[in-house]
Amino acid sequence: MADWKTGPRTVLENIAAAPGNNQLFQISEMAATGDSTTSATTPRQLQHINNLTPMHMVELDQKPPKMQTDLAPSRIKDVHTSDLPQEIKEEVVKVEEDISDEVTDVDPVIDIMINNVVSSFSVSCHLDLRNIARTGNNVEFRRENGMVTMKIRRPPTTASIWSSGKITCTGSTSEIQAKTAARRVARAIQKLGYNAKFKNFRIVNVLGTCTMPFAVKITPFSQKFRNRASYEPELHPGVTYKIDHPKATLKIFSTGSITVTAPSVNNVQSAIEHIYPLVNEFGKARTEEEMAEYWHLKARRQLLHDDGHDSDSDIPADLWN
To answer: pTM above 0.70?
Structure first.
């Protein structure tokens, strides 16, 4: 093969003559001749040399290929935008402002606490109240009212028993607990020798409370909604607000506390969702003492919520009918 300037050369000599390839040619030549006078001919280096792959030649006027990346969408915000055009920068700023507005416009979470669920049912038989007062456990005979009260521990409930067989239970904090307590009362009466059947169970009344994250100006609120709201500060410190659909009665106080009385738990939640945008218009900032009381009440509700509910697996199957 003819050289570019000095005449015939071998292929290795032509490669070695290229800029930057002198050292590689010397290592290759020593490896081929078996010269061990230098550390470049160690087995590891020979293996590295044999594993070298030839590089593709790139023409001078050819642009190198663009590198591809697997940048996740969540990491796009980390990209440096100094080299982007001005239009793209403005679009990025607009998207960030929209996201921040969405985060700040989210309504706060309001915890609704069910304090009492009143239920009623029938055992479909006549009851001797004096006999139940003598032989029953945790009972009290109220002669002036013509009924017997029975208390159970789990769930904490007080049952009012009449001689006609009608029973009313109060003190539960959920509809499931109310039904569990009613079955246990019916089972206790059944153990006293009565042919008790669990029938006509229904939820009569539900009492729920919640606290708004702000105080309420109840005087202008009652003036604006005077057709539904009633405010008599000499008789009661709160505003009485009645809703037809869903049926519920609310007591709104200036501290932001709201008490709801409704025939079901779903009605309580619907009533809170209905009244929130109305009282939000008349909201005002809380004092430090009110905020401390608000967070204390919220922590107490969370603690009560984490206690859980008891199981009703010990209820006999014959009381389910």
So the answer is: no
In the sheet with 199-211, reading across from the earlier edge strand, the strands are: 139-142, 147-152, 157-161, 166-172, 112-122, 199-211, 257-262, 248-252, 239-243, 229-231
* Cα angle 208-210-216, degrees, rounded to a multiple of 5: 130
Cβ atoms 241, 228 nearer than 8 A: yes
For the packed helices 43-50 and 22-33, what is the interaxial angle rounded to 10 degrees? 120
Q: Are 262 and 250 in contact (CB under 8 A)?
A: no
Residue partners of 293: CB distance under 8 A and separation at least 6? 255
SS3 for 310? coil
The whole-number pLDDT of residue 60 equals: 46
Q: Which residues have C-beta within 8 Å of that of residue 235, sequence separation ≥ 6?
A: none
Q: What is the rounded distance in angstroms from the CA atom of residue 120 to the CA atom of residue 182?
A: 8
CA dihedral 66, 71, 75, 80 (to 10 degrees): -10
Q: What is the pLDDT of residues 95-153, one digit of tens each?
A: 555 544 544 444 567 888 999 999 999 999 999 999 999 999 999 999 999 999 999 99
Site of tokens 């738990």:
265
Structural tokens at position 163: 């001689």
For 102, how many CA atoms within 13 A lie in the half-sphere containing its CB? Answer: 6
Q: How far apart are CA 110 and CA 115, in angstroms?
A: 16
